[in-house]
Design goal:
Layout (H helix, E strand, L loop, with lengths): L10 E5 L3 H12 L3 E6 L57 H14 L6 E3 L1 E8 L4 E7 L4 E7 L1 E4 L6 E2 L13 E4 L13 E5 L3 H10 L5 E5 L14 E4 L2 E4 L3 E4 L4 E3 L2 E4 L3 E2 L12 E3 L2 E3 L1 E2 L3 E2 L5 E3 L8 H16 L8 H17 L15 H12 L6 H10 L2 H4 L7 E5 L5 E5 L1
Parallel strand pairs: 1-2, 1-7, 2-3, 7-22, 9-16, 10-11, 10-16, 11-12
Antiparallel strand pairs: 4-5, 5-6, 8-17, 13-14, 14-15, 18-19, 20-21, 23-24
Helix pairs in contact: 1-4, 4-6
């Protein structure tokens, strides 16, 4: 399986230095591997790096999705890494994006990761060879591109870069401004305007709440079975899905019509891996990345792992568990199942998801409450430490608060007392 002789350190390539990439780098180094993380940006932190930059044209990519005034929708008490929690001197539980970035920087400094991170280095192609990986890295400073060879690949490029836009009749006829939430930055540009926000997930609800403070009126279009609480938003009207756009507004599926000046699509993101060659053996079909064993191991080339594809999860927890899980195999402590066994497991797990109502390929990596079964599975297979029970309890307490208690849920503080218990106090 490996080209590198056993008496030499095996080499690990980490693509990205955000929350997932830093975790993959840190754990790989601790496991005794020779690891390097490539980050195309000028600093670590991935999507948590705020930038006002907008694309110059349709071909330019903007990496960050952060906007002014963003606060987390999970308490910091469950957002840290298992071996590196957020500091207690941060009073609030629901913190700003800048505080998250500072935390990631302190994580990198604490574990002395910076010497192993190459900033402004973009991985532009990854190709499997007989026993290792050929990685072409573009150095943006010297404008050179050279191949480097690795035994293992961690794909940690994030999935908040490529917007997933719906196809709605009349989008090309509508004459107002249309943007995806990926490019939303400040509410003040909507002052005195009518705005349509499409989608009532965490971003849609939060952005609607931000925008309505400046806008004349906000229409919140969604198809949630349970109606979100917008009683505190006096100038927000909930609407069903858009049937079709008109020149200056839309007709909704209940037959009603509205006019507005802007549309903000809060409709999620697509998984994209532009640097991976086709012979890597991975396809993305309707946002279902396959074939993967346990949502992370490339079944066709198991020395490649994808970190952070599951959503509706505790991000750093999932990243950490997936990395520790894969390292058990990469360090030879546990043997991979056969390809046939991994494919059979994928088929079984996918079938169970479809039976539970997750029949849409776009939901193939959605977890929610199932994430804790997933953690149990990784723990059982690889013999790694599981998530503390108190984390599960805090997550159950936080569930769906962004929909039904958006105006108040961030006014609470959580304190972890031990592995089993926590207290919540109002501020």
């Amino acid at each position: 399986m490996f080209k590198t002789p056993l008496h030499e350190k095996r080499r690990v390539c980490v693509i990205g230095a955000g929350t997932a990439g830093l975790c993959a780098l840190k754990n790989s180094l601790e496991a005794g591997l020779d690891a390097v993380a490539y980050e195309r940006g000028t600093e670590i932190g991935g999507t948590w790096v705020f930038s006002d930059k907008m694309p110059k044209d349709e071909y330019e990519e903007v990496h960050s999705s952060m906007y002014e005034g963003l606060r987390t929708n999970l308490p910091k008490e469950v957002m840290g890494y298992p071996d590196f929690p957020y500091p207690n001197d941060i009073a609030e539980s629901f913190i700003t994006s800048h505080e998250v970035l500072e935390f990631l920087q302190s994580y990198a400094d604490h574990f002395k990761l910076r010497p192993h991170i190459k900033l402004q280095h973009e991985v532009i192609r990854v190709r499997p060879r007989l026993d290792d990986w050929e990685v072409y890295v573009w150095d943006h400073v010297t404008n050179t591109c050279d191949p480097v060879y690795y035994d293992f690949i961690y794909v940690c490029n994030g999935h908040y870069t490529e917007p997933d836009l719906p196809e709605i009749e009349g989008m090309d006829l509508y004459e107002g401004e249309q943007i995806h939430s990926h490019l939303y930055r400040k509410a003040d540009k909507y002052k005195g305007e009518n705005v349509l926000v499409i989608g009532a997930g965490p971003s849609g609800m939060d952005i609607a709440n931000h925008v309505r403070k400046a806008a004349k009126h906000v229409y919140l279009s969604h198809h949630l079975a349970a109606t979100p609480n917008t009683a505190f938003m006096g100038n927000v009207t909930q609407k069903p899905d858009v049937e079709r756009f008109t020149r200056n507004g839309a007709v909704f599926k209940d037959g009603s019509t509205e006019t507005f000046d802007h549309v903000i699509y809060c409709t999620g993101y697509q998984y994209t891996f532009p640097c991976l060659s086709t012979d890597v053996g991975i396809q993305v079909i309707d946002n279902f990345v396959q074939p993967l064993w346990k949502h992370c191991i490339n079944i066709n080339n198991p020395t490649m792992a994808f970190i952070g594809l599951p959503f509706n999860v505790i991000p750093a927890t999932v990243f950490d568990m997936q990395v520790r899980f894969s390292l058990k195999f990469y360090t030879g402590k546990v043997e991979f199942p056969s390809k046939e066994e991994m494919l059979a497991n994928l088929e079984k797990e996918t079938g169970e998801r479809w039976d539970c109502g997750y029949y849409n390929r776009k939901k193939a990596h959605q977890m929610g409450e199932r994430q804790f079964e997933y953690y149990n599975d990784l723990t059982r297979i690889a013999g790694i430490d599981n998530v503390r029970p108190v984390v599960h309890k805090v997550m159950k307490d936080c569930g769906k608060k962004y929909i039904f208690e958006l105006d108040t849920y961030r006014n609470h503080r959580y304190t972890i007392l031990d592995d089993e218990t926590f207290v919540k106090t109002a501020t």
